[in-house]
Specification:
mainly alpha
Length: 132
């Protein structure tokens, strides 16, 4: 299939598909060329793109996805490894949630302190530092 059809079926733009080729996240063999040098993408590439989309939706980075795809391609990606990777991602999400919660608390304190000021009061930099 040509890149237009691959784009429609995968949900990725043509530019994204080309970028994934450039960084070798997906690999299209040089023999997969039609006349006028058009690339002929296989169903396997489509399946790889679907996997990439799923992993991206789960918050994985392109490098994490690359590792999973490489392991899958050499047939050493088992359920235990995927569970480990997911557990690491969950830990990362939990850490980020804690940071966001702390930020929210700081913002609420700042809002509370500033809410005590008269409307029209000009803020001086030291006042912003007090709430932090």
């Amino acid at each position: 299939m040509l890149i237009g059809e691959l784009s429609k079926r995968s949900g990725f733009s043509r530019d994204t598909i080309r970028y994934y080729e450039k960084i070798e996240l997906i690999v299209v063999s040089k023999s997969a060329r039609r006349e006028h040098n058009y690339k002929d993408y296989s169903e396997e590439v489509l399946e790889q793109l679907k996997a990439i989309k799923k992993y991206k939706e789960l918050g994985f980075t392109l490098e994490e996805i690359r590792e999973l795809l490489v392991r899958q391609s050499i047939q050493v990606l088992d359920v235990a490894k995927v569970l480990d990777v997911i557990d690491i991602k969950i830990s990362s999400v939990n850490e980020e949630l804690e940071k966001l919660h702390a930020l929210k608390m700081r913002l609420n304190r700042e809002r509370e302190l500033l809410g005590r000021k008269k409307t029209g009061h000009v803020i001086q930099l030291p006042e912003m530092k007090q709430a932090v």
